[in-house]
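Hello K.,

You asked for the raw outputs rather than the summary table, so here they are, unedited. I folded two proteins back to back in the same session to keep the settings identical. This is the first:
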Amino acid sequence: MGATMATEALAGGKRSYWQVTKDPQVILILLLPLFLIYSVGILATGGVRNGVDLVSDFLRGTIFRGSDLAYGITMLAALIAMIFVLAKWREKRIFDPKIYLGVILEGVIYGSLLGTIVVRFLSILGVSALAAGKAGCGVFCNFTLSIGAGLWEEIVFRLLLIGLPAFLLAKLYPERKKRITIVLILVSSLIFSAVHYLGSLGDAFTLYSFLFRFFCGLLFALLYYWRGLAVSAYTHAAYDVMVLVF
């Protein structure tokens, strides 16, 4: 996969697929389809959204003044523009759209392994597994929530709570960079797990589900550092789709 997807990727100089997919500009391009699909899902489900979504309510309520028609037309226009731009970039060998296929494939592979790894680890710790139910809002609603979780939970819990503070604190305390990163990963994973029990739609707390989500958070964080935000987001979305939709 790495050999066949090498590209200029907006920054000049031919790089491998593994390098390109960690480029910040490429990550934005890779995340855009998740945002557009999720936005369409919000409209189609009457406003169902992820709990840490930082943008959708502001866009719909403030920018578009509650007009779902204007919001929907804008998302459609953005999708058409994205397809047009990608076609042009492919012609100019700036960006290879096949990179999307690689990231999706990675997400599906890692997502399919994630739950099994965490369950096995918890069983080693002697924590008994509990049967988990699916969210009861229908297939398309669950699909929308899954895409939203992949997008927004990775942005909030990995980029904003780990990546950004780690970058800033490393500038102040370069000799403590590794220690700071480890602490941020642990704290972010604890918060990631805890927020699933907050609010009227929060789950009932169990030790197993809390630890399961905590260790999932750790794996997402490691994936974020190893493969970048785009791959961790697609992995998170793929995992949630497998659990909530299928």
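The second followed immediately with the same parameters:
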Amino acid sequence: MKKSFSFLAAFLVALGFANAQTDQPGFYPGFTYGDGGKQEQPKEDDQQKDEQLPKKEEQKDDSKQDDKSSEQPKQEQPKKEEPKEERTNEEQTKQHEAGHALAKLQKVNNIEIEFAQLVLDRVQNASVREYAQMMIDHHTKANSELELFVQKLGIQLDEYQPQTPSEHKEQEKVLAIREKLTKLSGSELDRFYINSQIKMHKKVWLMMRAKRSKIKDADCREFLAKQLKVIKEHYVEGKKVRKALKSR
């Protein structure tokens, strides 16, 4: 009996020494009771997953930052420029208006030169002859200035010679005056030429002033203003010559 008790005591002492070596309470190594037992170590796969989780979260955060960085602040949109086609149409309108007025002016200059040349050597009165010479000189100069101005604008006046019913009527009147200037002579030619010049210059002045008021091109308006001044001077001078003829 004493031997059995001694053996049991020796067994228990040995068992307690083994537990002390493993730092674990309890009867068997590796077996735990409650919280005081051995903590179960995580598996390698679980560790890798845990390590990867923060990286994924970081990647999400980075993607959010990228999305925010990609969102550029709204910039004020620049004003849309007028389409080139509209600007071109506006320029064409200006050119069209200027072309018709300048073509008409060229036609008037040519008629004035032609009529003055018809009577220059056939009129009797010296004042009438001087007036005819002035018409040749001034309207020839006007045509030269007109040619240079048209070149600057880059247009062809031949394209602005309308063949309308009103133009045909005007042409018929011009032909009638030319025919009469050819047939008349002496004092009758003097009076008819001056009277026709006064009427023609008044009509041309009113017409060109109306055309100028519709033109938007500033350079063309300035050019026509200069020509209108000359036409008015011719009108005033013609009235002086006619008055001199009546006094005789």
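Residues 84-119 form the longest helix (36 residues).

Happy to rerun anything if the numbers look odd on your end.

Regards,
P.
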